[in-house]
């Protein structure tokens, strides 16, 4: 004969005890709030022409990096020439102030990126190997 749990009052009593133990948990207190984060400072931008000229200068600066290989120099030269042509063509049309502001923001971000790329290039040649 196989063993079974006793039925009746003992089973009901065990069920009630299990229910009471499961339902008596207390909520965990929330952690205290942290220090507030400082907002990013407002971006100080020049005119669209100034920011786009700074981008061209940053591209030319990368092209002059002594650690860049010939392919990177050719890429920077082609990119600089294309950017000059595009900016010259863009000046022929009339652009409203909000669009000029957005173009200035994009040129500023790209110039910051190219300056960082130039700093990495000036630190030494790109390591060759398996990644």
Summarize this structure briefly.
With 131 residues, the protein is mostly helical. It is built from 4 helices and no strands.
Could you name the ranges where pLDDT drops below 50 across 5 or more consecutive residues?
Answer: none
The secondary-structure element order is: HHHH
How helical, in percent, are the residues? 55-70%
Distance between the termini: 66 Å
Shape: elongated
Number of strands: 0
**Radius of gyration from CA coordinates:** 33 Å
Give average pLDDT, whole number.
86
* Largest sheet composition: none
Q: Structural class given helices, strands, pairing?
A: mainly alpha
Structure description:
With 131 residues, the chain is mostly helical. Helix content is 61%, strand content 0%. The protein is built from 4 helices and no strands. It has helices at residues 9-23, 48-63, 70-92, 97-122. Helix 2 runs antiparallel to helix 3 and helix 2 (48-63) packs parallel to helix 4.
